């Protein structure tokens, strides 16, 4: 099962590097491991044992920002294997899909996140360079006896739950790849079944992020309320086929459609009502799938912290709100907001790269940071996200819809995005609810800042799931 390193915000004026293939502004929140079948190995010319162990390093992003991480290197029948831990972000076991050893030179690649590390073992240290997109920085790794470990959260599902769990594989016939997932089925008759669609960033089925298993917990809560649940690895992630890095939300909607076809044909749940539960970007993905298949769509749609304003507006709003809650003074806040708007407008209007580069420089970014941001902004996912208005698809939704939002959501700001659902979906189909004390992950929160996600013990408010069940009962 794979995991991925992930940054929550796509704020362009931030000083920190985005450790993801795209800096998912609206979700997730989740991370995954890369596929082992793409791993390449070179027969070592030195003793592999010298590299085996836990290696600690500090990545300097700016004068104000450092990130500590640990590379875990082990042996397998095919050669060395490696994973990455980022304790400060509560990310553990992020598997490198390529591990290459040639002489004393080590190369590690985490393809879907665009991460590479090239280093050479010298005098007991691995001295090398970390690279992600256009960002590069020297990193020295030293051996440590301490292995980082994820601390269990109270809502983590138990190993032997009191319901049926089936590992499944289904195919996206249109694009030719298979998707792997977990189907959880309650004991007894099943009236409702849901497909969980994850938020942004390469995400495995459990939704490992910030020390939480977001979608494993959501699935567990739903099935305990009598609802069957399918959750699956994103394309190119974990055990799923396909290519992640070139995919957009529209591509992920095709995977959602394949999941719906699979659920309709599954013997145990074929007679149940089947719907999408989309979190963050997953809500947009569900809306696209519903708009594409108005005659053969799902029976219902639940949006959890989903967007209804354009990706461009999401980036502007979340940047402003996060900086404001962090305590930025009003003058600087206004200045940053104006600069953010200029950058987003330039990207939206396909401005020349040199102009965008100059705007990033005017915001105070270093050349290295500029290269990293340009790589993100030019990715297929980000280009589609910025230029897409979810209302285009929401207006075509004609199934029962429940839109849920947390009042402390700083990533998909609450009121304007709930308003978009109200404006787009006929009132005969729409129910909406705002939970004043919940954040973007639907956790009980203090400020709502992404920095809180890992510190909150609750993975997801059980009340939200109870309300989903009661809403379904009224259909």
Short description:
This protein has 475 residues and is α+β, with helices and mostly antiparallel strands. It has 11 helices and 19 strands. Helix 4 packs antiparallel against helix 5 and helix 6 crosses helix 7.
Description:
The protein is α+β, with helices and mostly antiparallel strands. Helix content is 27%, strand content 27%. It contains eleven helices and 19 strands. The chain has a nine-stranded antiparallel beta sheet with strand order 4-3-2-1-9-8-7-6-5. The longest helix has 19 residues, at 330-348. It is globular and about 70 Å long.
Strand fraction: 25-35%
Q: From the alpha carbons, calculate the radius of gyration and give it in angstroms.
A: 22 Å
Give the strand tally: 19
Give the number of helices: 11
- Order of SSEs: EEEEEEEEEEEEEEHEHEHEHHHHHHEHEH
Largest sheet: 9 strands, antiparallel
- Helical content (DSSP H or I, runs of 4+): 25-40%
* Derived structural class: alpha+beta
List low-confidence stretches: 1-45
Task: Quote the average pLDDT.
Answer: 88
Neighbour order of strands in the largest sheet: 4-3-2-1-9-8-7-6-5
How far do the termini sit from each other? Answer: 35 Å
Described by the principal axes of the CA atoms, the overall outline is globular
Furnish the topology, listing elements before pairings.
Blueprint: E1 53-60, E2 66-76, E3 79-86, E4 91-95, E5 98-102, E6 105-110, E7 115-122, E8 125-132, E9 135-144, E10 164-172, E11 177-185, E12 192-197, E13 208-209, E14 212-213, H1 214-223, E15 227-232, H2 249-265, E16 273-279, H3 281-292, E17 300-304, H4 311-326, H5 330-348, H6 353-362, H7 367-377, H8 380-387, H9 391-394, E18 400-406, H10 414-424, E19 430-435, H11 462-473
Parallel strand pairs: 12-15, 12-16, 16-17, 17-18, 18-19
Antiparallel strand pairs: 1-2, 1-9, 2-3, 3-4, 5-6, 6-7, 7-8, 8-9, 10-11, 11-15, 13-14
